[in-house]
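notes to self, project folder thing:

trying the whole complex as one job this time. last attempt i did each chain seperately and stitching them together was a nightmare. three parts in total, labels are on each line so i dont mix them up again. if this works i'll redo the older ones the same way
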Amino acid sequence: MTSIKNLLDNLNNEQKKAVLNTDGPNLIVAGAGSGKTKVLTTKLAYIINEKKAWSNQILCVTFTNKAAKEMQNRVLNYLKGESSAVPWLGTFHSISVKFLRKHAEAIGFKSNFTILDTDDQKKLVRRICEAENIDAKKISPQFILALIDSWKNKGQLPDEVKLKKKNSLEDKILKVYKIYQEKTKDLNAFDFGDLILYTVHLFEKNKDIREIYRNHFKYILVDEYQDTNFIQNKWLNLIVNEKRNICCVGDDDQSIYSWRGAEIKNFLTFDKIYPNCKVFKLEQNYRSTKNILATASKLISNNNSRVGKKLWSSSNEGELVKLNCYRNGKEEAQGISDIIEGNIKNKYSLNNVSILVRAIYQTREFEERFLKIGIGYRVLGGIKFYERAEIKDAVAYLRIINQKFDDLALERVINKPRKGVGETTLKNIYEFASKNNLCLEDSIRKLVENNKFKPKIKTAFNNLISLIDKWRNDLKLVKHFDLLKLVLDESGYSSLLKDKKDLENENRLENIKELLRAMHDYDNLQNFLEHVALATSIDQEWEGEKVNLMTMHAAKGLEFDVVFLPGWEEGLFPHQKSLQEKGDFALEEERRLAYVGITRAKKEAFLSFALRRIYQGDWMDAVPSRFVNELPDKNIEKNEMKFEKEKDDFDFNQDTEIEFGEEFRSPGWNRLKKNKLLRWKK
DNA sequence: ATGAGCTAGCTTTTT
DNA sequence: GCTAGCTCAT
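result (full assembly):
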């Protein structure tokens, strides 16, 4: 077992100071690869080991569930046998859920609330717009939700929103916001923003509850502090007690979430919020070679608004950072896969190779290429497992069993399998529901009771309702994963899938199996549903030997031996849309993103751009990114890559093994499957 | 009521 | 190139 002394001896001076300084506010400015996670986990272990607090008296907030899990494991490992896990370690969202489950009644909700996903939100907004005669074509639900979310990030419920001028558009949306909040309350549901906002309200409106937690949490640790927004910061402030034992870790150069309301201000003015705070700067980089670090440092030095720190490294020079120019996007994908096949595959585990893109759709070209030549890959982010139709269906059944106010779940489930209920019937039920102030389920019960349906529909509803009753009772008797099996069989959903004998459906059955397997990891239905709602884009399997494809945003906090950064072209990176919206401010954030991308690499980095690329179906000429000109010549090797037309370009190998258990339904994968299907039909 | 087929609009990033 | 949402025929 590692003793605490050993742990501390593994730290450099500044790291050690940061760990030992447990009391009072402190800010750790931690450059990329400077051992931030190591410091945080050691600090956690140190506090527990020194008996400064029990593990459950420490609140520790991370940016992703993966980071939380990682920290959990490390701490357990450090304190083997001496301490239990840290229960209050998680994301802002997952910890908020914990507070809200316990105190839902205090703010007028019930403890078994649902967490809405983006689809649910859109559906709700669309419905409200319809009722309010707002043309969804003129103001898109996405736009409305973006504004609502920004209000929530600023901590404003509908009544607290102050519009500067009586702008009719914002006025309209504010009205939608108001109805939306009423509606979600009826559904006994929270969306992502609500989880944080209502937790803040819970503490503000209930001083006694707030005091419980203020006294309880002796220490608060916050990771990725540069990406917290206004409401998250308020959330923290409400929990910190007089002793102000709060330790925030972050890097202003890696602030990349301002579009989600993140305010670097929180980070830069930490000493104003917490006077007499101690600041520690971790400037030794342990991750990257000198060439990689120099490239990243030179690039980020073009930003004006920085706290300013100098990262240094005692590692070797390493390979030069490659800057490759390709003729077009296709050849870029081809070139990168060739590099992986040729040099990389033998030197590194594919798991330690990542392609980091600006926009998730850029993964498509690589997927197609990898599928063709048979390199295993995984896409982190994009369409998630839990966003697949069959998975959402199964989850919707579970959601309505979990709580009857979840109209959205019930509506999804009503016609799966089909039972002759259409638009008109549904509309009538909803009308009845709003007139009598009932949820969908209770309305259906009433209407069945009062014999208001045609016989066929009545029987169908009768069956469904009694099944739901039965399942709710079953849940008391059997495990949640066994319940899902019952649900799928008894609802007829299983046979619906089994009857259709095509490849796509076989695949759906596979996915359902995978869902059942995943449920075993959670000890009850509610925890599982929570996981479904709050799983982050990188909370996926990392097993096996596969190249990773993800956005630079998703890669924050991760590191890989080899990193490819394709698509360094004006308009794509920096992205045109961000520049249009916010100008210079956005340009600096794009540059920080580039910095995050490069600093993910430990051993080798390959930047590249293409001169032509297909964009929205058409070939477009591209200009190299301005960032390319900001790289230091002496650390870079520039290559112009050319390809002979590939001979087997159209020669699709019919016997290629396809893994149909893939986690993602990505465009490239879909297309391959379609091709395969066509071949099989012949 | 349903499902096939077509078209418009679009993707920056995500808890 | 993709896909959600709409239209129209059944």
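what i see at first glance: Residues 63-64, 91-94, 118, 192-193, 195-196, 256-257, 259-260, 358-361, 381, 415, 418, 420-425, 534, 536-537, 551-554, 572-573, 575-578, 589-590, 593, 616 of chain A lie near DNA strand B (CB under 10 Å from a C1').
need to look closer tmrw
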